[in-house]
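Bench log. Compound arrived from synthesis this morning; before running ITC I wanted a structural hypothesis for how iron/sulfur cluster sits in the protein. Inputs:
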Amino acid sequence: MEEITFKVAPESKVKKKPSFLKPWLSLKYLFKKPVTIKIPYESIEPAEGYRGFHTLDWNKCVGCNFCGQICPARAIEMTWIEVDGKMEKRPHPKIDYGRCTFCQFCVEVCPPGALGFVESYMLTTEWNEEELQLFDWVPIHPDKFKEIQETYRDWRFPVEKIKFDKETKEVTYYLRNGEEFKFKILGYGIRPPKPPAKPTVKAEEKAQAKPEEKTQTKKPELDAESEKAD
Ligand code: SF4
Ligand code: SF4
């Protein structure tokens, strides 16, 4: 095998032009307008078709989990939801923006076209616990998202706050236009959550029998006390 030799120019041959002026040239940037923007106080118009936040038409979503399967970042979790006391017939994708890379593979693969995206891209928080819930959400209808964007024209996330009650599992979305949207999380996964087990007849009998047993065991003590009193 032929040996390859590399020639490296010696240090003495590298021309160095010392300049006292060059370091001072950077001072001109002090008087130029910065190219960065002050998020969240400033925003810029995104390019057409910019891959921003997701939207979801809950009526169209068939709960197939194709979106969850293709997601390279494992950011999608299928979620069973109850709205106005009624369980949704299919699970819907919940997206974790802590993981999502905005590749939009999930949107491309969605067979009924239920999952979509808008150009809004700004999600900033002050890192308190309530605001962090914003990073994990079941997207809302595209029309609602667009309506909010038309009102504010600032490309920000349409939800101001998400409240999650750990005990009741109730989620409240406080939309930026003052509307509230409530639903309950019943479970996760592609299979429907199991309803809470009804007490069996035997268990019921046992439960009824227990208080009697207790009274029976207490009886001799009571008898002994009454004898003492006599
Ligand atoms: S959003 Fe689309 S791909 Fe995902 S579960 Fe619903 S229908 Fe299937
Ligand atoms: S945009 Fe990409 S990373 Fe984000 S949820 Fe969809 S598939 Fe996953």
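What the model suggests: The beta strands are 54-56, 76-83, 86-87, 92-96, 115-117, 136-137, 159-164, 170-175, 180-188. The two ends are 115 Å apart (CA to CA).
ITC booked for Thursday regardless.
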